[in-house]
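Ticket #4471: complex job returned nothing on first submit. Input attached below:
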Amino acid sequence: MNLRHIERSTWIYIAFALLLFIVPFLFTGRSMLFMIMQVFIFGIFAMSYDLLLGYTGIISFGHAMFFGIGAYSAAIVMDLNDSTLLSLAAGVLVAVIIAAIVSFIAGILTLRLKSHFYAMLTLALAGLFLVAAEKWTSLTGGGEGFTFRLPEFLRDSGTMYMICLISLVVFFFGLRRFTKSPLGKVLVAIRENENRTESLGFQVLHYKVIVSVIAGVIASFAGVLYVLSLRFIDTSVFAVDVTLDALLMTIIGGVGTLIGPLIGAGLVEFAHHWLSDLADVHWIFERWIILYGIVYILAVIFFPLGIAGTIQSKFSNRVTKGLFKK
Amino acid sequence: MSNLLELQQVEAYIQQYHILHDISFEVPKGEVTVLLGRNGAGKTTTLRTIMGLNQASGGSIIYNDKEIGQLKTHSIAQNGIGYVPEDQGIFDNLTVGENLKVAMKKEDEETTTRMEWVLGLFPDLQKFWKKPGGQLSGGQKQMLAIARAYVNENELLLIDEPSKGLAPIIVEKVMESIQQMKEQTTILLVEQNFLMASKIGDRFYIIDDGQTIHNGQMDELKNDKALMKKYLGIA
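Support reply: We reran it on our side without changes. The output follows.
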């Protein structure tokens, strides 16, 4: 590989990633590390959502379902077995397989139709998984959830931080490469003009299903990391709020940019934390979701491209038309 | 000369509206066949129906001796039919280069040679290679749309109103490019600009109210003022 051919933005991302690797040596506080880990995890989750919405124009109202599938699969497998690396690997494998099957079925059933059918089906399925998690108490612990033990090496917050960071770096650069590949360009073509893409000879449904499966699997992996960071699981992982968070992170950060959802994840997670701390000052900060709503409306009106999208459009010739067409 | 495409009594609806009532025509190999007619006659719908973007509700569409009326759009394209729609269908957020590359079905030596030939035909595309499609002028978009259909070895090109909304000087350029393509590909052209159509067309069909009502060699039409006035409103 010729280093001169690597884009300048790639060097910036690599430098930033290297900086993040030294964070545990700068901040020793567990709560700060935990919060940064949450940013990484939700960053991965939001990137998977961006692949659907930003790159392919598919709207999902139930993306939390895949996050929850990942979280529950890992937690249940770890709970039922010894806390070893092998059971963790089995948990990840189960998560990935279930997420791939569910996303494939949801995709093949609805993606041949207009995009709102996929949105509604994923919403309904997420509701179904939520009810199942609440009612199947022998396996899931019901609404109260359950705790489980982690393998010894994962109990150290520094190690967990590194695992989350490495996952983020791998998914970010992997997805970046994917979106810049010919396949990624076909996805953008589908988002912009489905009929035209079809008449160039592409079977659009196949591409949409592939993206649905990739996004579902990545979201489930984010769910696995989430549950490992908490060592506890309850039904909140299937809640609509989780999907709305991903949507908000993607919109604020910038749809169709990959880096945008990471910025969005950082903003939303830190805002959530700081606004909750301000609850003593005024009751409105307890209802931080109201503030999110206002931020969301303002972002859509004044920054439809989000933070990263707006910056990119200043430095490149990115066209705004078409990104919000669906 | 054998026919590459043949439509027999094709009917089509758009929602509840019966748009095509009885479309029948033949496109001989190696020729430019022009569909003429007033606005709303059904010319664009005919092309969309051939491409499978509208489903034909009756009749048959035979391409290369094979019925394609019930095939999906992507299969029709894979069978060697290229389509340049009226709205050009440029992907705004892809660069000129990406717009062309995304259309390439293979990346062999032959396709590369075709790409070079196309870029020679439209030097502006080479110049604006890294510019997003959405930032091109109307004429450049039209050139890109035609070039995109031509980077693959399509046996038949369906081109819908390539001169629409373009300045006369650009129309000349587009026409020149179609003239050059004519030597290698069969073309079915929908065109309102009769001057342009008459220069590049070999034969014509007139469509009125969703039916083919007249046809012949283009030279005959050029000399039949009464027919031109009756169906095309040209004095």
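Residues 3-80+155-232 of chain B form a domain with the Rossmann fold fold (CATH 3.40.50.300). Closing as resolved unless it happens again.
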